[in-house]
Write a structure and sequence with these properties.
Blueprint lengths: L1 H15 L4 E5 L2 E6 L12 E7 L10 E8 L4 H17 L6 H42 L2 E3 L1 H27 L4 H12 L3 H20 L2 E3 L1 H15 L9
Antiparallel strand pairs: 1-2, 2-3, 3-4, 5-6
Helix pairs in contact: 2-3
Amino acid sequence: MASEALAEEFEVLESIYPTELTKLSEKEIRIDVEPEEIVDGYDTLKLVLDVRYPDDYPEVLPELTINPSEGDLEDEEVEHLLKELQTVGEENLGMAMTFTLVSHLREKLSTLVHARYEHHKQEEAEKERLVVEAEEAKTRGTPVTPESFLKWKAKFDKELAVKKAREDEEKMKGMTPKEREEYKKLATRLSGRQLFERNKDLDAADDLLEEGTVSVDISQYEREAIEEEEEEDHVTFSDSE
């Protein structure tokens, strides 16, 4: 009687899965299983479900084996799917349950594929966010504290002074003693712009001390210092002096 019931179930399954089902023996079949929903543009998962029916089926559960035919499955994922199929089978003892088991497996495959797809999207979004942050960091000013700004300014002024001293020495080599004396006087005299720049630097330092940290474009300070130095290079001396 059990064999007749199984034969009838095979006949129904063959009509439902005409291309997916393969009959391996009188008591064993193989069904190709894929998700209910396919995610466009993303790798899917396909499984092979082997079902071996014991003599007492459907009063006892069939033996189930799952193997991936397309895509990868972790061992833990295979075990989880088998446990869920066992639970569904126990709920349907005494009845033909193969179609119910396959339907449940297709549903769970869809859930697994969608979860993987969402994880993939999150990874891509995180990569994009890191790229955007890196590009924004390149265009932002250098964040400094009052202490680091004053330390940088002292180092910059020292380097600028050493450079100017060397250039002055080279310039004065070709001057007469009178021209050297006049050049030294001009070098030690603060111009109106220099006085303004000094006051501006002091005010900037005070603002730093009051506000904590700011974003300072140090390259602007350097460009202005170089422009000032180039202006001084145009100093000329009249022959009458």
